[in-house]
Design brief:
alpha+beta, 4-stranded antiparallel beta sheet, 28% helix, elongated
């Protein structure tokens, strides 16, 4: 992995790309012996994985290696008073699994209390999550849609999905939901969704929202997020996508409502954009969106 952190709480990551990485690491750990341990006669400089909170060993900073500096999980090693190694979390960490399993499986009940930090971040920064979801997908999320997503996030307990992290909160808001009707949905021009709707022949008319259009007639069509995917490539970069499907009612089935796919597409997402927004000092809060979070995410 190419980033580390120092506690199990949410905090900005320290990247190996930072030219002052060594200085910042040493300033952060000071003389705390938990982060610098001798294991089997070898000194290990430790930190935490930003995804699974397990201890990691820093490689290539204090001893030359043949590849770029990075961190690797330190199996079986604890950092006293900070974190104990957890095999379950290691097995489900993106940097170990390399690929998402695409299922909405919940963590064991023993892991749920630790997910409250994730839930707190979602609630306190809900306006930022909605903003980023709009930016990346091109969907203009109305207050009504924001209410629906907040309520569903709680009902589905999406913060307890195995692959849910603080960093992908915006994507899990919509990934855990069944889908929105395309009828009168407002969409930003020149986005992936806009181009797919245009290619499918949907009638799109200019919206009152600058730079956006709305879908005039969609005959029961839905837009649904079907998969959240990630792949850690050979260079240890974490790449993430959200897969969408456009579906319509199946006219051949008369006794129940079923759908057939019309189109599929993916939206690439920035793994750390949301974390950067959380730390952005000059953010102008949208109080009406935060009020929605307070109303629905009140557990």
């Amino acid at each position: 992995m190419k980033e580390i952190k120092f506690t199990t709480n949410y905090e900005p990551v320290l990247s190996f790309a930072d030219k002052d990485f060594k200085t910042k690491y040493e300033e952060r750990v000071g003389n705390n012996p938990g982060y610098i341990q001798v294991v089997s006669g070898e000194t290990k400089h430790l930190a935490l994985c930003p995804r699974c909170n397990n201890p990691v060993a820093i490689l290539g900073i204090y001893k030359k290696i043949d590849v770029a500096p990075h961190a690797r999980h330190a199996k079986g090693i604890n950092i006293p008073n900070v974190v104990q190694y957890d095999e379950y979390k290691f097995q489900n960490c993106p940097y170990h699994k390399k690929r998402a399993n695409y299922i909405k499986e919940y963590v064991p009940e023993t892991e749920e209390p630790q997910r409250q930090e994730l839930f707190r971040i979602a609630k306190e920064h809900y306006d930022k999550a909605i903003y980023l979801l709009q930016e990346e997908t091109g969907i203009y999320i109305t207050l009504k849609m924001a209410e629906t997503l907040a309520e569903n996030y709680v009902i589905m307990r999406a913060y307890n999905y195995i692959d849910a992290t603080i960093y992908n909160i915006p994507w899990y808001l919509i990934y855990s939901f069944t889908g929105f009707p395309l009828y009168h949905m407002i969409i930003r021009k020149n986005t992936t969704l806009y181009r797919h709707l245009t290619q499918l022949g949907f009638v799109l008319k200019d919206s009152k929202v600058k730079g956006h259009v709305y879908v005039e007639n969609s005959e029961g069509y839905l837009l649904t997020a079907t998969n959240y995917r990630y792949v850690v490539d050979k260079n240890d970069n974490l790449n993430e996508w959200l897969d969408f499907s456009i579906i319509r009612p199946d006219a051949t089935v008369t006794d129940t409502l079923l759908y057939v796919p019309v189109d599929r597409f993916s939206v690439s997402v920035d793994s750390y954009h949301f974390g950067n927004l959380i730390n952005y000092q000059n953010w102008g809060s949208r109080q009406n969106v935060l009020d929605i979070a307070k109303r629905y995410m009140n557990q």
